[in-house]
Amino acid sequence: MRQMIAHHAQALEMAALVPDRSAREDVGTLARRIALSQADEIQMMRRWLESRGEPLPDPHAHHVAGGAPMAGMLSAPEMRRLAESRGGEFDRLFLELMIRHHEGAVLMVRALFAAGGGQESEVFAFASDVEVEQQLEIGRMRSMLSR
Q1: Which residues, in sequence order, are CB contacts of 4 under 8 Å at separation 6+?
Q2: CA–CA gap between residue 81 and residue 68 (Å, rounded)
Q3: CB-hemisphere CA count at 13 Å for 115?
Q4: What pLDDT, on the 0 to 100 scale, is given for residue 58?
Q5: For residues 3 and 70, is the Cβ–Cβ distance under 8 A?
Q6: How many Å apart are CA 141 and CA 139, to the nearest integer?
C-alpha cells in the first residue's frame, strides 16, 4: 500500500501538468479521470494503513533518490522533460510516460499476487480493480497516441 501510494502520487503530479501544457481536450479529460480516481485510491490506502496502525508514507517518498525505482516511475529528468514540454509534444510524451507508469502499477499488482499477497479480501479487490482500470486506461491511451 505504501508503495502504491507513492506510485499514485507521481501520477497525480503528472496529471497536474496537463491543464497548462496540453493541446488536446481528450488528454485533459483523461488526466482529470486519473487524478480523481487515484486521489480517491490514495485516501482509501491511507485509511487502510491507519486502521492497521501502519506508518503512512512520506507524501514526497517518490522523490527520494537512491534505491531501486518502482516499476513505471519516472525519473527526475523525465519529469522535468514532461514539465518543460508544451502542446503536441507534451501530449505525446504525457501519454507515452503515463502508459509506462500504468504498466508499472500492473506489474506491482502482479508481483503482489505472485508473492502470495492480496489474501485479505479488501486488498484483493483493490489490487484487482487497479489492474483492470490501469489496463483499460493503457488501451485508451494507446488509441489516443494513434490519433
Answers
A1: 41, 45, 105, 108, 130
A2: 21
A3: 8
A4: 76
A5: yes
A6: 5
Instruction: Using pLDDT thresholds of 50, 70 and 90, give the confidence band for residue 33.
Output: very high
What's the length of the chain? Answer: 147
Q: Which of 130, 112, 143 is nearest to 11 (CA)?
A: 130
- Global confidence as pTM: 0.91
In angstroms, the CA 125 to CA 123 distance is 5
Q: Which structural domains are found in the chain, ordered by start? A: 2-145 (1.20.1260.10)
Would you give the DSSP letter of residue 62? G
Closest CA to 62 of 78, 75, 46, 45: 75
Q: 25-50 burial, b if ≥16 CB within 10 A, otherwise e?
A: eebeebbeebbebbeebbeebbebbe
